[in-house]
Specification:
There is one protein chain. With about 210 residues, this protein is of the alpha/beta class. It is about 15% helix and about 25% strand. It has a single domain (about 5-210), classed as Glutaconate Coenzyme A-transferase (3-Layer(aba) Sandwich). The chain has 4 helices and 13 strands. The strands form 2 sheets. It has a 10-stranded mixed beta sheet with strand order 4-3-2-1-5-8-10-11-12-13, with helices on both faces. β10 and β11 (about 175-180) form a beta hairpin.
């Protein structure tokens, strides 16, 4: 069995280190907030001006004024602070965020990322993705391995408009985990998901990769 969205997020949560400042992107990455491993203390940052996000609220805890960058309701913590968007992006652009976990539409074998626009579809804008991949020290992308059509989203080169070139360090899909060497070393499969076979990953992946299991 391939990983579920929650299992993919749980695998991404294993990349958290104690003391990290972390930004979670829209989609599957937001689930990481509820899956932080025991004994790990991290501070979650949101582009819309919040430092110290708590987990998603239970129904009786919902405050419509407390939202993340993806417009989902969240909770605050005793240490939570609020500030302007300008200050938020100064944190990101200044290199003060240790890790960003983002969603993706396409990732290339060299770590290029496309995650903000599908040609012909209406979009509001790039949001903070371009700043996050440029200003954050380590970028992890979590996405389904294939489109609904069955076409691979892990490609030799991205066909969609790029968010950043050579920016992805680790790719987690429902089929497995790939390390990507930004310096040109290519992609390496380091972990298989669930009962997924290596043959299945090879059949569903367009990008070239080596295997280190």
């Amino acid at each position: 069995m391939a990983w579920t969205r929650e299992e993919m997020a749980a695998r991404a949560a294993q990349e958290l280190k104690d003391g990290f400042y972390v930004n979670l992107g829209i989609g599957i990455p937001t689930l990481v907030a509820n899956l932080i491993p025991p004994g790990i203390q991290v501070t979650l940052q949101s582009e819309n001006g919040m430092l110290g996000m708590g987990p998603f609220p239970y129904e009786d805890e919902v405050d419509p004024d407390l939202i993340n960058a993806g417009k989902q309701t969240i909770t605050e913590l005793p240490q939570t602070s609020y500030f302007s968007s300008a200050d938020s992006f100064a944190m990101i652009r200044g290199g003060h965020i240790n890790l960003s976990i983002l969603g993706g539409m396409q990732v290339s074998a060299t770590g290029d990322l496309a995650n903000w626009m599908v040609p012909g579809k209406m979009v509001k804008g790039m949001g903070g993705a371009m700043d996050l991949v440029a200003g954050v020290g380590r970028v992890v992308v979590v996405m389904e391995h294939c489109e609904k059509s069955g076409e691979s989203k892990f490609k030799p080169e991205c066909a969609l408009p790029l968010t950043g070139k050579g920016v992805v360090d680790l790719l987690i899909t429902d089929l497995g985990v790939f390390e990507i060497d930004r310096r040109g070393g290519g992609a390496k499969l380091i972990e298989l998901a669930g009962d997924v076979s290596l043959d299945e990953v090879k059949a569903k992946t367009e990008a070239p990769f080596t295997v280190a299991l």
